[in-house]
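Private note to self, pasted from the team thread so I don't lose it. Backbone tokens:
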């Protein structure tokens, strides 16, 4: 198949999960024999994977809300490429991929990683209703109706009327050949003998819980548990608050954002992977925990036991007491107790092996792309594609 992947709100190569996702899916589909073209903003450094054809198309001024202004340019590219399928990375103010699919006669696939439906109390929904004809709801539902397939981690973030046979529920993943125990490369933090490195990697936003981790490490240090070394990888608006919470820690490192190729060594040098999500801090998560958490899969592939809150979706991804330790998010001491439960090196080792085995078995990008390939072929056959 010839595939055009429209992801112009992302930047490749980049340091964020969306960038990793786009590059992994494009490369994975190309490895399965498809001709893959990707329209995305160009990041710092060379394009990845020579089997993929990359087209530098960015959202105006780098603002995803203005993506639709690139509709004509993307339609021209689609007519030139003549794809069988256009995959659009969905955004509330997107739709340029849907228009490109229509212009080129291709089947449309929507990749949905954030809610299409509005959460209770949504300001966007109130504005939409104030416009009387609800143009935003109508536009996103038009896109869903055009789609031969919708790819998402969680069905609950889609309109209920989308038929089940047009939905592929599939997790994001990790590359277990790169993310593995013992991965070599420069380690962006110093380690002392006998310490336990607890790593957090991701966006520094309130709902990702980096500040909560810093607070938990400070509370444990105050109780005499001073072997823990907190390593914080990434950046974001919560960074100043996290730094304040970590100010008194004896051992803490802030690396800033790292290129994705530096992450395998950074994780392999750690002992515990922390994913202390705070779902109450992000109103859209009232719809459920819809993320497919890249950090969790990469921790697991690197052989790290995972510490995360015990909520239904995360409990399906990480088995408590087997691949990590889950804690009650309503218990203020729950995160501290989970970290203490992993002080035993033997327990960390066998949990890390279990985590690695499950990541290889269930959460690799290869498995993701195999499932996607099968669903794309079925969708194209269903609509009678060329």
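Design output:
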């Amino acid at each position: 198949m010839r595939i055009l992947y429209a992801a112009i709100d992302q930047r490749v190569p980049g340091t964020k999960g969306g960038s990793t996702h786009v590059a992994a899916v494009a490369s994975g589909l190309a490895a399965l024999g498809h001709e893959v073209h990707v329209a995305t903003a160009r990041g710092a450094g060379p394009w990845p994977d020579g089997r993929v054809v990359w087209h530098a198309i960015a959202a105006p001024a780098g603002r995803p809300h203005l993506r639709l202004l690139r509709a004509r340019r993307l339609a021209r590219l689609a007519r030139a490429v003549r794809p069988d399928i256009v995959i659009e990375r969905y955004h509330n103010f997107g739709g340029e991929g849907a228009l490109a699919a229509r212009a080129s006669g291709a089947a449309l696939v929507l990749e949905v990683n954030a809610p299409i439906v509005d959460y209770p109390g949504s300001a966007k929904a109130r504005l939409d209703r104030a416009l009387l004809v609800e143009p935003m709801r109508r536009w996103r539902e038009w896109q869903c109706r055009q789609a031969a397939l919708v790819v998402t981690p969680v069905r609950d973030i889609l309109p209920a009327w989308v038929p089940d046979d047009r939905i592929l529920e599939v997790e994001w993943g990790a590359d277990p050949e790169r993310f593995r125990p013992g991965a070599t490369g420069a380690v962006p933090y110093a380690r002392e003998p006998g310490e336990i490195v607890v790593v957090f990697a991701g966006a520094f936003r309130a709902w990702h819980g980096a500040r909560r981790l810093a607070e938990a490490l400070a509370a444990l240090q105050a109780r005499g548990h001073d072997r823990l070394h907190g390593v914080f990888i990434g950046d974001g608006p919560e960074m100043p608050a996290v730094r304040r919470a970590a100010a008194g820690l004896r051992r803490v490192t802030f690396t800033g954002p790292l290129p994705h190729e530096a992450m395998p060594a950074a994780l392999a040098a750690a002992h515990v992977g922390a994913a202390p999500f705070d779902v109450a801090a992000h109103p859209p998560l009232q719809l459920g925990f819809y993320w497919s958490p890249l950090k969790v899969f990469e921790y697991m592939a690197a052989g790290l036991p995972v510490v995360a809150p015990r909520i239904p979706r995360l409990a399906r991804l990480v088995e408590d007491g087997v691949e990590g330790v889950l804690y009650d998010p309503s218990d203020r001491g729950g995160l501290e107790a989970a970290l203490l439960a992993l002080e035993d090196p033997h327990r960390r080792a066998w949990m890390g092996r279990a985590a690695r085995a499950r990541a290889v078995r269930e959460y690799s990008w290869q498995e993701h792309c195999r499932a996607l390939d099968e669903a794309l072929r079925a969708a194209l056959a269903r609509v009678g594609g060329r």
